[in-house]
């Protein structure tokens, strides 16, 4: 035993030592020279990308965007996506530059404005890399000539030429080893699609086919007969609902089917077709016009793990009962459909344990939480917004699901006090219970029970009392929305004066968004209110705040929005306002401010919306109401916000209008 161990270790050590002796500092000279040429070419005429690729530096394997094989020192991966500066215009590749990379396996070149190839003195030179398996040329400006350039890639498995300028007849040539083909948005249509399908027959091992965002029509899909296909993406095409599912039913190896945004209408098939795909693991038919009930035969899709049905008109029972036999189901997205409550919610328990469940939908009533939810203990993401559930805060959901990361229960008609779970829950990072009828105080220990919260939204409820100081211990909190409650700041502890906004809020190191508007806060602003260096959005309107606008912002250039309107602030507009150089929204209307409007305001060139009306200010106000920048364009950035809306009242020529829009939450990636 001991002897054999000894023997096997010795050669291993010898190999390591000899490599260190023989390898030139981890880089092959021929490849290093080619990399530098490649850099010059992609920076032509005056770009500055890839600064770490330097002529005097021999260690090219340490350069950015390069992976080498550690034993041979040869380049195996080049991550050259989005490296060409857009202002440099089209980039013409010199295929010869890639010749030295004979060990290259993966080459990423997407989003570089590649428009074609430079001719080498009239000699045709294809890409020649015998080991290359993955080539991503998507999001460039290539035309059909790219197809012939791929001749020299004998190991190619996955080319991606999506989102280029290919057009019309596409006759694919390439190694028969191809397993994956991404041809999204290559403008194939009509008869050119038939040609394409015929050429696909040359690739018997094709398992993944992306044909999204083309101009396919249902009728040509009748020719689709790719029995080995495991992934098919047809999203963004106009498909014929009456035959697409039937056609696809013949592709019995399919594991992933994506029909997102295909204008499918009518009902899901109740027999043949879709339900025959018993290997199907992921089905995505989000954003179509499908209606009717979920067909019982869906229960045949026993391999299903992800089922995405959001944004259709499907009748989906709140209980999810048609899906109970899908024991592998992990993710169900059913939001924005016709969610309904069954007459009697049974006690059956589903065979699945879901990890994510989204069932939000406006205009729907459920009366109570579905019973099946009591059997789930693996939920990480749960969204039930806008369903009229009624009842109290489901602290049991948090207790049962220790992995829970986000919980959206906005606008669910829930009431009563905010109930904490029995023990602390470190994994919860998003909690939204805005727009319900919760009442009473926010529990003093909330910070200790949800120490990992990043987003806390409790607006539009009836919460009263003070903001508990334990919130200050949520060190990751980025967004705090307590607007539209009856918080007064009155507290029995000695920490804060009656009615005041607690000063420690300004010290929360991760806080970016704070909304305390429409409460009953009074008294002066705490002086060090803006001490958090991350703070960008501060909404304090419609309270009873008094005194001068005295705030200290640690990093004033970060502030994007400041709304102090509808309070009782007095004094002058402070001159330090000019330091808020990235300010977009400044709302100070309906206060008792006086004096001249400071000239410093003119320097805030990012201002999109400003309102100083209903004060005792002098100076040229009207020209300041709305800046010349078209603020519509800025607003569109914030469109996709979740639910709670930020409203601004602004005045043009004394005509008040309400801008009500989704101000910022989309910035935080909420859907
Ligand atoms: C590195 O190259 C050697 C020799 O060609 C090969 O055996 C090994 O699998 C490669 N390692 C990796 C991680 O690709
Ligand atoms: C493709 O683009 C190249 C370079 O822009 C051009 O020379 C060639 O004529 C184009 N070929 C086709 C088929 O459009
Ligand atoms: C392409 O690259 C090769 C190899 O570096 C070089 O010899 C040739 O001149 C280049 N062609 C053009 C047109 O720049
Ligand atoms: C397809 O894959 C099989 C198994 O991996 C292989 O034996 C066969 O040669 C491949 N066919 C082609 C045309 O690449
Ligand atoms: C697809 O390509 C067409 C034409 O090139 C373009 O107009 C369209 O916007 C693209 N669609 C998407 C979703 O990118
Ligand atoms: C859709 O397919 C059905 C059945 O194959 C056919 O009768 C109908 O004409 C097709 N509709 C369109 C718009 O192509
Ligand atoms: C599929 O579902 C239908 C309808 O529910 C059922 O009659 C049929 O037996 C099922 N087929 C299989 C293979 O389970
Ligand atoms: C689910 O499976 C059970 C037995 O495994 C069967 O009795 C029942 O009918 C199935 N339900 C559905 C909706 O397919
Ligand atoms: C709240 O839910 C009700 C019922 O679903 C719906 O009608 C209403 O539009 C929702 N409110 C908001 C602001 O989304
Ligand atoms: C979930 O919570 C409810 C109420 O506390 C309890 O009855 C049920 O057993 C729990 N379920 C699981 C799976 O923990
Ligand atoms: C939090 O989640 C991680 C994985 O996401 C898990 O390992 C950990 O056990 C969870 N913590 C608790 C207390 O459940
Ligand atoms: C308030 O402060 C006083 C004096 O510092 C102290 O005696 C009292 O116990 C404090 N009250 C509370 C509720 O903390």
From TrEMBL:
<keyword id="KW-1133">Transmembrane helix</keyword>
<dbReference type="InterPro" id="IPR051502">
    <property type="entry name" value="RLP_Defense_Trigger"/>
</dbReference>
<comment type="similarity">
    <text>Belongs to the RLP family.</text>
</comment>
<keyword id="KW-0812">Transmembrane</keyword>
<feature type="domain" description="Disease resistance R13L4/SHOC-2-like LRR">
    <location>
        <begin position="225"/>
        <end position="459"/>
    </location>
</feature>
<keyword id="KW-0732">Signal</keyword>
<dbReference type="Pfam" id="PF08263">
    <property type="entry name" value="LRRNT_2"/>
</dbReference>
<keyword id="KW-0325">Glycoprotein</keyword>
<feature type="signal peptide">
    <location>
        <begin position="1"/>
        <end position="20"/>
    </location>
</feature>
<dbReference type="GO" id="GO:0005886">
    <property type="term" value="C:plasma membrane"/>
</dbReference>
<dbReference type="InterPro" id="IPR055414">
    <property type="entry name" value="LRR_R13L4/SHOC2-like"/>
</dbReference>
<dbReference type="InterPro" id="IPR001611">
    <property type="entry name" value="Leu-rich_rpt"/>
</dbReference>
<keyword id="KW-0433">Leucine-rich repeat</keyword>
<dbReference type="InterPro" id="IPR003591">
    <property type="entry name" value="Leu-rich_rpt_typical-subtyp"/>
</dbReference>
<dbReference type="Pfam" id="PF23598">
    <property type="entry name" value="LRR_14"/>
</dbReference>
<keyword id="KW-0677">Repeat</keyword>
<keyword id="KW-0472">Membrane</keyword>
<protein>
    <submittedName>
        <fullName>Uncharacterized protein</fullName>
    </submittedName>
</protein>
<feature type="domain" description="Leucine-rich repeat-containing N-terminal plant-type">
    <location>
        <begin position="29"/>
        <end position="69"/>
    </location>
</feature>
<dbReference type="InterPro" id="IPR032675">
    <property type="entry name" value="LRR_dom_sf"/>
</dbReference>
<dbReference type="InterPro" id="IPR013210">
    <property type="entry name" value="LRR_N_plant-typ"/>
</dbReference>
<dbReference type="Pfam" id="PF00560">
    <property type="entry name" value="LRR_1"/>
</dbReference>
């Amino acid at each position: 035993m001991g002897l054999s161990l000894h023997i096997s270790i010795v050669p291993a050590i010898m190999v390591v030592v000899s490599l260190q002796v023989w390898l030139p500092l981890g880089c092959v000279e021929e490849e290093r020279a080619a990399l530098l040429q490649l850099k010059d070419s992609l920076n032509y005429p005056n770009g500055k990308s890839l600064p770490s690729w330097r002529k005097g530096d021999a260690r090219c394997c340490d350069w950015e965007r390069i992976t080498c094989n550690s034993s041979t020192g040869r380049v195996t991966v080049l991550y050259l996506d989005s490296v060409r500066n857009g202002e440099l215009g089209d980039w013409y590749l010199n295929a010869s530059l890639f010749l030295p990379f004979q060990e290259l396996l993966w080459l990423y070149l997407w989003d570089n404005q590649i428009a074609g190839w430079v001719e080498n003195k009239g000699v045709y030179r294809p890409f020649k890399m015998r080991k290359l398996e993955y080539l991503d040329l998507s999001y460039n400006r290539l035309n059909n000539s790219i197809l012939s350039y791929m001749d020299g890639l004998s190991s190619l498995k996955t080319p991606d030429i999506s989102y280029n300028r290919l057009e019309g007849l596409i006759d694919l040539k390439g190694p028969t080893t191809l397993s994956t083909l991404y041809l999204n948005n290559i403008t194939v249509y009509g008869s050119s699609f038939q040609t394409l399908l015929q050429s696909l027959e040359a690739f018997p091992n094709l398992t993944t086919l992306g044909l999204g965002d083309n101009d396919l029509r249902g009728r040509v899909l009748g020719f689709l007969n790719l029995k080995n296909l495991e992934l098919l993406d047809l999203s963004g095409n106009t498909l014929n609902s009456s035959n697409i599912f039937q056609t696809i039913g013949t592709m019995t190896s399919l594991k992933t089917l994506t029909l997102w945004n295909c204008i499918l209408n009518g009902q899901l098939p109740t027999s043949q077709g879709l339900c025959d795909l018993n290997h199907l693991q992921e089905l995505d038919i989000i954003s179509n016009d499908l209606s009717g009930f979920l067909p019982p035969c869906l229960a045949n899709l026993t391999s299903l793990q992800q089922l995405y049905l959001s944004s259709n008109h499907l009748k989906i029972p709140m209980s999810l009962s048609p899906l109970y036999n899908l024991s592998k189901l992990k993710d169900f997205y059913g939001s924005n459909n016709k969610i309904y409550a069954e007459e009697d919610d049974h006690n059956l328990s589903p065979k699945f344990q879901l990890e994510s469940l989204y069932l939000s939908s406006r205009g729907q009533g459920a009366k109570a939480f579905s019973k099946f939810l009591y059997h789930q203990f693996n939920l990480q993401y749960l969204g039930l917004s806008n369903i009229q559930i009624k009842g109290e805060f489901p602290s049991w959901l948090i207790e049962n699901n220790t992995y829970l990361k986000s919980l959206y229960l906005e606008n669910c008609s829930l009431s009563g006090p905010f109930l904490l779970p029995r023990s602390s829950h470190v994994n919860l990072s998003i909690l939204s219970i805005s727009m319900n009828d919760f009442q009473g105080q926010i529990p003093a220990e909330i910070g200790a029970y949800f120490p990992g919260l990043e987003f806390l939204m409790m607006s539009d409820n009836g919460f009263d009392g003070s903001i508990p100081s334990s919130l200050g211990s949520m060190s990751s909190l980025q967004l705090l929305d307590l607007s539209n409650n009856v918080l007064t700041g009155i507290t029995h502890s000695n920490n804060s004066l009656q009615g005041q906004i607690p000063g420690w809020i300004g010290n929360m190191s991760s806080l970016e968004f704070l909304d305390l508007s429409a409460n009953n806060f009074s008294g002066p602003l705490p002086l060090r209110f803006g001490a958090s260096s991350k703070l960008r959005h501060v909404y304090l309107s419609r309270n009873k705040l008094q005194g001068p606008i005295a705030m200290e912002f640690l990093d004033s250039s970060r502030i994007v929005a400041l709304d102090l309107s509808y309070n009782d602030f007095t004094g002058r507009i402070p001159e330090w306002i000019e330091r808020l150089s990235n300010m977009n929204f400044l709302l100070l209307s309906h206060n008792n401010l006086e004096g001249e409007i400071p000239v410093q305001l003119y320097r805030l060139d990012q201002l999109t919306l400003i309102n100083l009306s209903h004060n005792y200010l002098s100076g040229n106000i009207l020209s300041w109401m709305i800046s010349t920048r078209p603020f519509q364009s800025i607003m569109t950035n914030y469109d996709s916000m979740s639910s709670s809306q930020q409203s601004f009242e602004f005045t043009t020529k004394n005509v008040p209008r309400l801008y009500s829009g989704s101000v910022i939450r989309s910035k935080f990636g909420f859907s």
